[in-house]
Amino acid sequence: MLKNIYVTPLNLLKSATSLQQQVRTTFVLKRKYDPPLHKTNEKPRRMRAKYFIYELVEDTLVKKRPNMEAVLKTFVEGVGDKGDVVSMKPHFVYNKLLLPGLADYNTPENVAKYAKTEAEKSAVKHSSAYAQRTVNMLESIVLAVVMNKDEPWVLEPWHIKASLRKAGFHCREECITLPKERIEGPDLKKENKDFYCTVTINKLEQARLKCRLHHWSTDPSERLPYVLEHWKQNSEPLLEVGLPQKPGKEKK
Questions:
Q1: pTM assigned to the model
Q2: At residue 3, does pLDDT exceed 70?
Q3: What's the rounded Cα separation, in Å, for the pair 78 and 134?
Q4: Secretion signal: which residues (predicted)?
Q5: Which of 120, 131, 198, 243 could form a disulfide with 116 if both were Cys (CB 3.0 to 4.6 A apart)?
Q6: Looking at domain 131-224, which of 3.40.109.10, 3.10.430.100, 3.40.50.150, 3.40.1000.10 is its CATH number?
């Protein structure tokens, strides 16, 4: 009987502790009305209800935590390169840098440990922390290149520059490399067909930009029907030369 009596409370305690969660909530308050002082060796007066009215000074639960510093072990897209000391939000540093093993705590020992060597400094792989992100963005879109349907034209880099500006990208003409084969028009056989051009970023990274040709006329009666979300539709290549090859397959 005694054994059964003592076993039951232990089981209840175990189940209760598994439900406990630590909550850090601290509120800094101040009285709205200062209570009156009492004389020495005199019984304090009973405080009225208004002296128990408090005003909130600070809520530590919603207080912004300071940034946390970390030393990068390798290149991290959008953050920095190896050996850089970055200061970011603690949540991002813990979950995106420290836990995956991409960074370590900022200490003099870690700064010296992960500093770049002379060989690594000479072999530059990334021009900036955001260059690769720009490459990924350019290679993920289908750029609409709108050309005149009534007047003759030859595709030039400034056409791609204007199309990129309409899509939200600012680029210089000297950074754009067109295909070797000449593209000219107007030619409705080339309508809604794709070709690739190369965009060089910071004279180092290169993005392979997929472009789609469209014809447009100033005369509303001569305009082609509008294609909604053209990038979702299948299309044919405009040029057979320079098509990207799938990995593992060689062109015969």
A1: 0.63
A2: no
A3: 10
A4: none
A5: 120
A6: 3.10.430.100
